[in-house]
Amino acid sequence: MNWSADMTVLDSILDDLAAESLQLDGWVAGLPLAGWQTVTTPEGWTVAHQIAHLHWTDEASVEAITDRAAFEELVRQAGENPTGFVDEAADELALEPPDQLLRAWRQGRGALAEALTSVPEGEKVPWFGPPMSPASMATARFMETWAHGHDVAEAVGIEVPRNDRVRHVCHLAVRTRGFAYLMRGLEAPDVPVRVELTAPGGERWEWGPEDAAERVSGDAWDFALLATRRRHRDDVDVQATGEHANHWLDIAQTFAGLPGNDPKRLADR
User: Fold this and answer.
1) From CA 217, how far away is CA 242, in angstroms rounded?
2) Mean pLDDT over residues 93-106, rounded?
3) Backbone region of residue 260 per phi and psi (left: phi > 0; alpha: psi in -120 to 50; beta: other values)
4) To the nearest whole number, what is the mean pLDDT of the chain?
């Protein structure tokens, strides 16, 4: 793929990221002060924590592109405190007044898009996991916005509209299959898996060799919820054929860092 085509892909992902961000922005912008303190996760993150985390990660992404020394310091701090680093950053920013936090997140989103489009041809951006191309980093930012948007929506009683932008999350889940094993100290098997998912719009999305013996199939939206660890396997319409495909669905994660607590079944919440 040439540089012009790369930029077209990046621009398309950034457009979808902007749309996903605006959707979440609309959900939180009208919340009263008390609404920002609504608890969204079993670990106690509030709506404010969710927006704080997205803002912090956008800023970290910009630093990874524009200030490598500052980003390397972030990586060092994360290595010294792997289980608390992300939470502590969210705790600190969540203390800001909601209007100030929301304004900062909006500005950071713009800065991130500008920074990603400035990355030279062929260059990858360092991250807490493997280095990423600008398109991959934009996809990761979309995934985070989508996943944390779900946390907010469910907490404040909003039904998330299903749309085909979720393809970015599914694509990232497939691309990070090996990384999911790494995060659990396991060796990824050298076994191809075919993934066939039904999109919200009815199209069939496919990854992997057609003749692969091991397969994952089902609903794309549910696969994204599973891979972002927002749903238990018992609560999604996703099936696996084969030992390795089945194990992957147990450990799938699209995000960098430790997997965290396993999601609870909906009936147990």
Assistant:
1) 12
2) 98
3) left
4) 94
Amino acid 34 reads A
Pair of tokens at residue 191: 């076994």
Contact 150, 156 (CB under 8 A): no
pLDDT in tens, 23-73: 999 999 999 999 999 999 998 999 999 999 999 999 999 999 999 999 999
- What digits encode the pLDDT tens for the residues 123-154? 999 998 789 999 999 999 999 999 999 999 99
Nearest to 166 by CA among 20, 5, 51, 22: 20
Whether the Cβ atoms of residue 48 and residue 86 lie closer than 8 Å to each other: no
Convert the chain into a string of H (helix), E (strand) and C (coil).
CCHHHHHHHHHHHHHHHHHHHHHHHHHHHCCCHHHHHCECCCCCCEHHHHHHHHHHHHHHHHHHHHCHHHHHHHHHHHHHCCCCHHHHHHHHHCCCCHHHHHHHHHHHHHHHHHHHHCCCCCCCECCCCCCECHHHHHHHHHHHHHHHHHHHHHHHCCCCCCCHHHHHHHHHHHHCHHHHHHCCCCCCCCCCEEEEEECCCCCEEEECCCCCCEEEEEEHHHHHHHHCCCCCHHHCCEEEECHHHHHHHHHCCCCCCCCCCCCCCHHHC
pLDDT of residue 114: 97
Largest CA distance in the chain: 54
Burial (CB count within 10 angstroms: exposed 0-12, middle 13-18, buried 19+), residue 32: exposed
